[in-house]
Amino acid sequence: MNDFPAYAPSKDHELLRSTVRELADAKIAPFAAEVDEESRFPQEALDALVANDLHAVHVPEQYGGGGADALATVIVIEEVARACASSSLIPAVNKLGTVPILLSGSEELKAKYLGPVARDGAMFSYALSEADAGSDAAGMKTRAVRDGEAWVLNGTKMWITNAGESEYYTVMAVTDPAQGARGISAFVVEKGDPGVSFGPKERKLGIKGSPTRQVILEDVRIPADRIIGAEGSGFKTALATLDHTRITIAAQALGIAQGALDFALGYVKDRRQFGKPIADFQGVQFMLADMAMRLEGARQLTYHAAIKSERAMHGEKVADLTFVSSACKALASDVAMDVTTDAVQLLGGYGYTREFPVERMMRDAKITQIYEGTNQIQRVVMARQLLK
To answer: Domain Acyl-CoA dehydrogenase/oxidase C-terminal: where (predicted)?
Structure first.
């Protein structure tokens, strides 16, 4: 049995983890509270990630990227989120915006857009949702009409992460209203295209450093070759994309929870009541044990899903990818909400103040249960996979 493979990340993965953690502790964590307090974009984090080629590690080497596998990408996002959830959306959303091109785009499109992301630090957002098309994304109203050698886009996309900061946007739009979901196509829109504008920043509970805005498209004319895949294949591409990128939200949730657990562990060892550290009390120990147990369970499922994602990206048919990606996203985000809430509880009154980071982590954790498909939708997805 000595040759049985370890069910664990490789040495290279663990070296990457230590490298990212060191960088995040030094260059990202010191600004996390300020970024949250001022609701400003974490430019320090972007600069540090770009300088160390960690902002879009998933981009293949042939397009100038690092060619990191899905598990390595998860580890990068997890470790950045441990320091600052807003900052972790830089590598996470770069993957979300570019996976449609990796899955369905032409070689010309890949060469044109993946290179600037990998080499120059350009960010790439994803524009699917609308005000009346959230969970029911197929109900979108944004239109794209062919006009000679161009497409003309009109509509408003809602809840777009890093909108206004990102240079590029994957936009889903209806090209044939009579076909329903099969009449939706995907396009690349550039920030500088005439007719592109952005709504005001949403005032949010958490992840305040990552701007969330409308992307407004008014007679936006783009070249015809900016369509991603075949006309009418956009919604299929969108669903396939989420099978891969829900895993990155699970990674973000893991990092937020780990950051809260780590801080709580340090606190309970130092905080004294009744003449001894509160870590000596069995009730506190049970809380800590449950927090760590649930977090490790979610981590193992997320890493398992990441490995399946990597196999699928290389063309293997992975029958249960949709199930495991939904499962890890729902589990990890629920665990993150529980763990951060317990961390606040362990700090008592201090945990409720902005002097300590756990209240920020609790606020940040909530969105992981909502975006890229609410956890209620994840349960619908999982049930359908089980019953089909």
So the answer is: 232-387
